[in-house]
Amino acid sequence: MRSSARLLVAVLVAGLLGAQPIHAGTITERVVAFVGKTPVLLSDVALARALLKLDEKEATERAIDEVLMFEEASRLTTESIPEAEVERAISDLKERAGAGFAPAALRRKALVQLAISSYIELRLRPQIRVEDEAVRQVFNERVSRDPEPPPFALVADAIRESLEGKALDQKIEEWVASLRRREDIRRVAPRS
After folding, report:
1. pLDDT confidence bin for 89, thresholds 50/70/90
2. Alpha-carbon span 72 to 51, nearest angstrom
3. CB under 8 Å to 99, separation ≥6 — which residues?
């Protein structure tokens, strides 16, 4: 009898607060992995899936990578992020992820992504150098395929930017690989 009364009270309170009912057996949150002592939550994986259009396994790996990068970034950067920038990031996440994600989860994700981005700009991007010779080589390869290529001066900056982007992506992959080697990552099997 007591459990019925508690259930009735819970349903009424949920209805008053506008919450969606949770059906018996529905898992709303659980830990899918640990990075050191930091949990990676099912909601983090769901958000990664929605944002990046990945399957669950790939999204779990991306969520793990994000925890690794954030822990490193938060140790080495101490800048506070302006609230206006956080709000823009949250708005972008809402638009990309769609409905169904709690405002707190979107805010947490925005703060994590902004911290990682700041770290990359401060620590990794300055290590990227693209020589003029590399830009000229890419241009020459394009010229050999295009009968009417644009002038070098018009496309040189875009070529340099593309090469810098590829080099930065490689640097980020190396960084994440080194973080994975240093940290204990444990995946948690779902309960049946």
Report:
1. very high
2. 23
3. none
What Å distances lie between residue 80 and 113, 114, 161, CA to CA?
13, 10, 28
Q: What is the pLDDT of residue 166?
A: 97
* Burial classification of residue 189, based on how many CB atoms lie within 10 Å of its CB (0-12 exposed, 13-18 middle, 19 or more buried): exposed
Q: Which residues of 99-114 are buried (b: 16+ CB within 10 A; e: fewer)?
A: eebeeebbebbbbbbb
The Cα 37–Cα 110 span in angstroms is 22
Q: What is the DSSP string of 43-77?
A: HHHHHHHHHHT--HHHHHHHHHHHHHHHHHHHHH-
Specify the pTM. 0.77
Query: Whole-angstrom Cα distance, residue 88 to residue 94?
Result: 10
**Per-residue model confidence as pLDDT tens digits over 125-184:** 999 999 999 999 999 998 888 888 899 999 999 999 999 999 999 999 999 999 999 999
Residue spans per domain, the chain:
31-127+164-187
CA pseudo-torsion sign 130, 132, 133, 134: positive
pLDDT band at 10 (very low <50, low <70, confident <90, very high): very low
Q: Among 178, 186, 191, which residue's Cα sits nearest to residue 69?
A: 178
- Confidence at residue 18, expressed as pLDDT on a 0 to 100 scale: 40
